From TrEMBL, chain A:
Protein name listed in UniProt: Na+/H+ antiporter subunit D
InterPro entries in UniProt: CPA3_Na-H_Antiporter_D, NADH_UbQ_OxRdtase, ND/Mrp_TM
Entry similarity comment: Belongs to the CPA3 antiporters (TC 2.A.63) subunit D family.
Organism, scientific name: Lysinibacillus antri
Signal peptide per UniProt: none
Pfam families: Proton_antipo_M
Keywords: Antiport, Cell membrane, Membrane, Transmembrane, Transmembrane helix, Transport
The UniProt record lists the keyword Membrane: yes
Topological type in the membrane: Multi-pass membrane protein
Entry's localization field: Cell membrane; Membrane
NADH:quinone oxidoreductase/Mrp antiporter transmembrane domain: residues covered: 128-416
GO MF term list: antiporter activity; NADH dehydrogenase (ubiquinone) activity
From TrEMBL, chain B:
Domain of life the protein comes from: Bacteria
InterPro entries for this protein: CPA3_antiporter_subunitC, NUOK/Mnh_C1-like
Keyword match Transmembrane helix: yes
Protein name: Na(+)/H(+) antiporter subunit C
Length: 494, 112
């Protein structure tokens, strides 16, 4: 059964290669890519239940036992994220079917989405830090292509900056890995954790940890987000939604993994830095969201606020804060995907990006308007929608640890998020409609299906938090007690 | 030998950093290529330069050289090769479409 773990990585890669040869038959490409993602999601669901019943499972490639070989590790935390990522990708694909256009579809859009999700799933599942680097690169190369696909002036300009930033970040990742290997002589994450615990986290290791923090912050958009608003505004809506939902979250996952499993000892330094960075990220993100006049700016800065908020959970580091972070991570993937899909649709319908030039959308598209409303409430954290559980648990953790400044910043940001999105809602959805009912463009059915599916997921994460809680509890239990993870990998017969 | 290698890595990193800080597209890309070479050498050096025999059971009987840094570098070289190739194509297209290879002119305004 262990072989199942590799499937979320290998299935998308194999089908992606297959799809390259089916370039002309777009219908076939659509069906195959959709089926692939549904298959990956269901396999992950099966895996989640296996892990729930049997504990952490691992797959040693070619039988090389840890710590020598590369391995995949499936714990609840990784699987929850793989599951959410696969679901969101499936839904974004449905949206893409009706909106992305023939030109993209013929230029290998679907294969690259599958490569992207393969890289994302691989990053979540791997148990070897060099393999994490490789999976990051698989994901990034696919994202480079997706960001530049289309070749418009602004797209090329921003994608070049995006690629260069990521190349430099990957370079720093390699430097960190070199020092890590030089000091600890191992790259297996569990083995690193064990050795760090044995020798204690001396200043050299803390330096390596901070270097890793820098790398993952660049990828996650934690304080070092200067590249994010530009590159997330240029590609088509389906790709933006995928980026907003997946790419920064992989960085966040890596941060949480690094600082709960591998370098948890010197919290005075590392977690303080993360806390300061998270607070600054939220403040800067709020400023951006408030100052934005076009919907792209508002939406991209909302992504940044979300990143900061999740990392408050890591900075505080108590069990309830981490539970909140896991909930909020899943919520954020779904809600940010919906935000970008809706905004893409608004721009398609009106041909405008500036908020005040759109008006009265809700008259022509009532359902569309109400889905936006639900998404807005979820992002602001209003019960019973998805953002609420995560926010309240992170807040609870912050109170336990007396991190009142972070608490205040985090909850003040909710109001700013609500304000910035409400401004879009009031200006663009209410008011006199500029387009008469007869002249309106119809919203494609596929787009409606994807909006509804994402809205249902948002409601489910909020209302059905209880059904998710068994998995989340297990995930956080492993995060808080890294010895469970280490024993599952290094102890024979475990 | 290790100290010599580290100095070499330092020189490469400074050259790469200098190139990256310039405004010309092609210099920046060359800078990233040089940086990646530097980090490959760094991995080789911190992993320990040749200390033992070939890591094959039939060829020598220990102590063996650590073969892992080479494997890591091989992977990293392939990745950096692919990325650099992609970057060059992207830079060429950007230059063709935007009509400039100077990042100062590629800032992009939000009000355009």
């Amino acid at each position: 059964m262990n072989n199942l773990i590799v499937l979320p990585l290998i299935i998308p890669i194999i089908t992606a290669v297959l799809l390259v040869f089916l370039r002309e038959s777009i219908m076939l490409q659509r069906i195959i890519s959709l089926l692939t993602m549904i298959a990956v999601s269901s396999i992950t669901l099966i895996l989640l239940n296996i892990v729930q019943a049997e504990g952490i499972i691992r797959l040693d490639f070619s039988g090389w036992l840890p710590p020598f070989g590369i391995l995949f590790v499936a714990d609840s935390f990784a699987l929850l994220l793989v599951f959410t990522a696969s679901i969101v990708t499936t839904i974004c694909l449905i949206y893409a079917f009706s909106t992305i256009g023939n030109r993209h579809e013929k230029m290998f859009f679907y294969p690259f989405v599958l490569f992207l999700i393969a890289g994302v799933n691989g990053s979540f599942l791997t148990g070897d830090i060099f393999n994490l680097f490789v999976c990051f690169e698989v994901m990034l190369l696919a994202s480079y292509v997706l960001v530049a696909l289309g070749g418009e002036i602004g797209q090329l300009r921003e994608s070049l900056k995006y690629v260069l930033i990521n190349v430099v970040a990957s370079w720093m990742f390699l430097v960190a890995l070199a020092y890590l290997y030089g000091t600890l002589k191992t790259l297996n994450m569990a083995h690193i954790a064990e050795r760090v615990a044995e020798v204690g986290q001396d200043p050299l290791l803390t330096t390596v940890a901070i270097l890793l923090l820098l790398v993952f912050s660049l990828k996650a958009g934690l304080l070092l987000f200067f590249w994010l608003p530009g590159s997330y505004s240029v590609p088509p809506a389906a790709i933006q939604a995928l980026f907003a939902a997946l790419l920064t979250k992989v960085g966040i996952y890596a941060l949480i993994r690094t600082f709960t499993l591998m370098f948890p000892l010197d919290q005075g330094i590392t977690h303080t830095i993360i806390g300061i960075m998270a607070g600054a990220t939220i403040i800067a993100g709020c400023m951006g969201a408030l100052s934005g006049r076009d919907v792209y700016t508002i939406a991209t800065y909302n992504v940044i606020i979300g990143v900061g908020f999740i990392l408050i959970g890591l900075a505080v580091g108590t069990e309830s804060a981490l539970t909140g972070a896991v909930y909020y991570l899943m919520h954020d993937m779904v809600a940010k995907a919906l935000l970008f899909l809706l905004i893409g649709m608004m721009i398609y319908l009106t041909g405008e990006t500036v908020v005040k030039n759109m008006s009265g959308l809700i008259r022509n598209y009532p359902l569309f308007g109400w889905i936006y409303f639900i998404m807005m409430l979820a992002l602001a954290g209003i019960p019973p929608l998805s953002g609420f559980v995560g926010k309240i648990l992170i807040g609870q953790g912050a109170i336990e640890e007396r991190a009142y400044v972070l608490l205040a910043i985090g909850f003040a940001s909710s109001i700013i998020v609500l304000y910035s999105l409400l401004r879009v809602f009031l200006a663009s959805f209410f008011g006199e409609t500029t387009i008469s009912f007869e002249d309106r463009k119809p919203i494609p059915k596929g787009a409606y299906v994807s909006f509804c599916l994402l809205a249902i997921s948002i409601i489910y994460i909020g209302v059905g938090a209880e059904t998710l809680s068994v998995y989340v509890k297990d995930a956080v239990h492993t995060l808080v007690n890294p010895s469970i993870y280490i024993d599952a990998i290094l102890k024979e017969g475990a | 030998m290790e100290s010599l290698m580290i100095i070499l890595v330092g020189i490469l990193v400074s050259v790469g950093t200098y190139l990256i800080l310039s405004r010309q597209m092609i210099r920046i890309i060359l800078g990233t290529a040089i940086l990646s070479h530097a980090v490959h050498l760094l991995i080789l050096t911190v992993g320990g330069l040749k200390k033992g025999g070939v890591p094959l059971l039939s060829q020598s009987d220990g102590p063996y050289t650590d073969a892992l840094p080479q494997a890591l570098i091989l992977t990293a070289i392939v990745i950096s090769f692919a990325t650099t190739a992609f970057l060059l194509v992207l830079a060429y297209r950007t230059y063709k479409t935007n009509g400039s290879a100077d990042f100062h002119e590629l800032r992009g305004m939000s009000d355009e």
